[in-house]
Amino acid sequence: MIRFYFHPTPNPAKVALFLEESGLEYEVCPVDTSKGEQHLPAFRSINPNGKVPAIVDTDGPGGTEARVFDSSAILLYLADKTQRFAGTPAERPELLSWLFFISSGLGPFSGQAVHFQHAAPEKIPYAINRYRREIERHYRVLDEHLSKREYIVGSDYSIVDMSAWGWLERAPRVLATEEPLAAFPNLRRFFDAISARPAVARARAVGRDFTFKREMDEAARRALFPSNYAETTL
């Protein structure tokens, strides 16, 4: 059994997609990050960094319980566990390269673009332009890469495609426009093809049985952005 610590944001969405694609048995454990539940000792014992997603596999290696945090680590762990969606051994270097391209570039820059456009108390033109331009650059890299291929790595669907889908799903919010992929036709085709998979509809429904805080009040800001409050110790 996989205990899946979840909040309805892009990085947990990637893991939800893998779980639905693989058919692994799992239990959703909601973590309301706007209420600060990611900072509670019980969750910090699972992810010391206080971020979602995280999983606990009660049937880990050798029958032991295993905790895994960070979406890319979780995808790699689950791919190895199930021997699915990890490409061929020959494709492993390419798979790792693109997976970390997403986890160290596309993901963080998308998050910062969202923050400075939608959450920051001040609209700072330099910051907004910086992160939007970097997202567009990352999109161009992927768009060019996908010009002659169906999937990001090799000839089959993999965890890299799931990882990219998690953030592309939020592209309208990341670039604050209704047609964010219009200038990237290969990326648009790729995203539409992944989104048409039956498991995506199921992944999008994960967590809908739970109510998460939506208000961006002062308590939520302190919970989500504790580094902005020097006096806060979490």
Question: What key phrases describe this protein's structure?
Answer:
50% helix; four-stranded mixed sheet; single chain; Glutaredoxin; Glutathione S-transferase; Glutathione-S-Trfase_C-like; alpha+beta; 234 residues
State the gist of this model:
This is Glutathione S-transferase. The protein has 234 residues and is an alpha+beta fold. Helix content is 50%, strand content 8%.
Strand and helix map with partners:
Layout: E1 2-6, H1 10-22, E2 26-30, H2 41-44, E3 54-57, E4 66-69, H3 71-82, H4 92-119, H5 125-145, H6 159-168, H7 171-174, H8 185-195, H9 198-205, H10 218-224
Parallel strand pairs: 1-2
Antiparallel strand pairs: 1-3, 3-4
Helix pairs in contact: 1-3, 1-6, 1-9, 4-5, 4-6, 5-8
Describe this structure in words.
Pfam families: GST_C_2, GST_N. Residues 1-86 form the GST N-terminal domain. Residues 88-223 form the GST C-terminal domain. One of its GO terms (molecular function) is transferase activity. This is Glutathione S-transferase. With 234 residues, the protein is an alpha+beta fold. It folds into two domains: 2-84 and 202-228, Glutaredoxin (3-Layer(aba) Sandwich); 89-196, Glutathione S-transferase Yfyf (Class Pi), Chain A, domain 2. It is 50% helix and 8% strand. The protein has ten helices and four strands. Strands 2-1-3-4 form a four-stranded mixed beta sheet, with helices on one face. α1 (10-22) packs across α6, α1 packs across α9 (198-205) and α4 packs antiparallel against α5. It is globular. The model has no long low-confidence stretch (mean pLDDT 95).
